[in-house]
Amino acid sequence: SLQLYTHKREHTLEQTVQGSFEPLNENGKLDEKGVHLRREIGLLPAVSFIIGTVVGSGIFIAPKGVLMNSGSVGLSLLVWALCGILSLFGALCYAELGTSFTKSGGHYTYLLETLGPLPAFLRLWVEFLFIRPAVASYVSLAFGRYVVEPFFAPCVAPPALIKLVSILGVTFVVAVNCWSVRVASQTQITLTFIKMFALVLIIIPGIIALAKGGRIYFLFLVFKSENSLFENSIFMLPLAFYNGLYAYGGWFYLNFVTEEVINPNRNIPVAIIFSIVTVTVFYVLVNVAYYTVMTPAELLLSDAVAVTFANRALQGLASVIPILVALSCLGALNGGFFGSPRMLFVGAREGHWPRIFSMIHIRRHTPLPAVLFLYPLVVVMLINGEIYQLINFASFSRWFFIALATLGMLIHRHRFPNHPRPFKVPLVIAITFTAVCFFIVGLSLYSDPWNTGQSCVLTLTGVPVYYLAVHRFRLPNRWRRIFSKLNSQGILLEVAQQEVQTY
């Protein structure tokens, strides 16, 4: 008995140091029979998960929005580089948060641990009220557009058909994430390699064009002092940054699945840093390729920039590019549906959402109710949404709460200096990132008061919901019966509460 106890204790201490905790059974081995989310994400799946989620529709759609709001080619390239640096700063902050707090849930968990339950609930509220449906909607709309438009070129593709194909893409991703964590992870790895190949296919013709003399035209565009196409003020720059940051969005998704990452104290920081540096280099090179081959006017007139580029520079492969871009969008969609439901799962586990959403499928070991909950929300917003409005609409709340999370990290550092932090970001980086995020969020209220104002108001609607439904639980008896009946339906979905502690 003493030998078994000693073995268990040593194993538990080792797991604690590595940032994981899974209780041992009576034989001193990990209990694999209990219902829980397994640690199945190694370093390669983690890198693929981040790159595959970041590189989606953004680099093929956002260049138009960045150029439109920045006012010049040179400034737009600067925005792309600065967005990459800012994303790296944020990713480093989240690497510290992800190794300091071993729970899954990302933003929600960090706000809960550092600033308290109300900000955490508001983040959960806006995530599933409009941020996640909006993000998934504009990625799936991009998928549908790149699948459908080649069949109708040069005519305009029917919007209804684009939305139908988009819904089919969402349905496929939901089915994969309900079926198996391993299948979803393998799908992500495959799609990540495909989308990086697509970026290389765009970069190479751009480099060739520069070598053949295109650099003179490119430098002329970059350093041209005025451009009659643009009449924008400095107050439009936050919208340019929103479009650029949208293309980089996804560097925080690995933090949503911390409890499923193998050796998270090592793999989370390494995967985050490697992924963001790689994506930044590729994004800048892709934009250089765009401006080397296309004029700013052509880019602004195109709703599918990569297709227009392929028609100019890759005539022999022009038909392949839309397929690669569509698969890239599918990878980003898969990454979002893999990570975001974990936030809902953890929120329900903490009592901030109906209990059924903290349940796991007893055979598939996936958070089935949380994944299924997203599906109708995405479909509804997809049918009613317009892509650039969705970007501005969702970005305000997303970046506001990211800034709050890193602010909470700084406050937590001050209040609990001895808390274990296996990875610690330099203080100047954390302060810079937090200040820039708050500045962009504040200035965006001036630049686009309608969409950002709506986002702000919808965020605040969660305050009365929190005090009625969570803090005091002063719900009418009819509502309580509805929630109770909803929780009892878990048996129909073959789901149960988590039986093994994974944090």
UniProtKB/TrEMBL annotation:
Protein name stated in the entry: Si:ch73-352p4.8
Question: What topology does it adopt in the membrane?
Answer: Multi-pass membrane protein
Question: What superkingdom heads the lineage?
Answer: Eukaryota
- Annotated TM spans: 41-61, 73-95, 129-148, 160-181, 193-214, 234-256, 268-293, 313-333, 366-384, 390-411, 423-446, 452-470
Q: Where in the cell is it found?
A: Membrane
Q: Which GO terms describe its cellular component?
A: membrane
| Example GO molecular function | L-amino acid transmembrane transporter activity
Give UniProt keywords alphabetically.
Answer: Membrane, Transmembrane, Transmembrane helix
**Which coarse location class describes where this protein primarily resides?**
membrane
